[in-house]
Design goal:
Length: 276
């Protein structure tokens, strides 16, 4: 897990070592590793659920070494022997986010109902994308091509994840206007299957494309949203795991855990770092 920010790095280094001279150490070496002898606890969130973990090592990377202008703190986490997180322990090589300042807990994926059949899920993604187009601005536009179910596809796609008693729907849909302008509309909704109780978790963005790409500085240019999973929270609610992909500035891309009702981001993990 990685955390970007000079202040977090300084404070966490001081917490582990008692020293306030992290910047001096990074000026000399570029990378400082500190063992966490107190084994602080954390909760790791992934599409598998929430799993308790403990911090074993912190690596502090100097600014610019990971592609970030600020220092990057790399947290090495270990799970309890014997799989204390059960099925919620994430497999290797998947993106996770972690909660550091809360009592650790274990929880499964946030499912209170079975997933939709594929055809019904595709219909729901299409309906939500069309609703987003109808409320996001003018002129009106029509889908450029039918959508598919694929959380990794950058356009003409979406996904449906069970989130408590609702469905979380992410979409990245291209539309074309009568003037032949191509738009990308993206967002995330929590909804029932008939859209009677639709709630926008990430409000629809309406972005004009040039050559199939977002243009720097164009109105609405920003993020594409993808839903990666739903996790049962500690207080009985659910958290959504979202990817926010920034086309124009890749370093702004991140994975987040968000409360779908309040839209509050409770944890985030950068996606575009390249640390040595």
């Amino acid at each position: 897990m990685f955390v970007v920010g000079d202040r977090f790095a300084r404070d966490f280094y001081h917490q582990l070592t008692g020293s306030r001279h992290l910047s001096d150490s990074l000026d000399r070496r570029g990378l400082v590793a500190v063992e966490d002898r107190r084994a602080q606890s954390a909760t790791v969130l992934s599409a598998s659920g929430a799993a308790p973990a403990r911090l074993t090592l912190a690596r502090f990377h100097a600014p610019q070494t990971c592609g970030s202008a600020e220092a990057v703190t790399e947290l090495v986490l270990a799970f309890p022997p014997g799989g204390g997180g059960g099925r919620s322990t994430p497999p290797s090589h998947v993106t996770v986010v972690a909660l550091l300042a809360v009592t650790p807990f274990a929880g499964g994926a946030g499912r209170a109902r079975p997933p939709l059949p594929r055809a019904a899920a595709l219909d729901l993604v299409t309906l939500v994308a069309q609703r987003a187009e109808s409320i996001s601005g003018r002129p009106r536009a029509a889908l450029l091509r039918p959508l598919v179910l694929d959380p990794d596809q950058a356009a003409d796609a979406g996904e449906v994840v069970v989130s408590g008693s609702r469905y979380a729907v992410g979409f990245r849909a291209r539309f074309v206007t009568a003037q032949s302008d191509t738009l990308l509309i993206t967002g995330v909704a929590a909804t029932d299957q008939s859209l009677h109780a639709l709630h926008w978790v990430m409000k629809p963005q309406r972005i004009r494309l040039r050559g199939g790409m977002m243009a720097r500085g164009s109105p609405g240019a920003g993020l594409r949203y993808s839903v990666r999973g739903s996790v049962a929270g500690a207080g009985g609610g659910t958290l959504l795991l979202l990817d926010e992909i920034a086309d124009v500035s890749a370093r702004d891309s991140r994975a987040t855990a968000i409360d779908p009702d309040t839209r509050r981001v409770v944890a985030a993990q950068p996606l575009a770092l390249r640390c040595p």
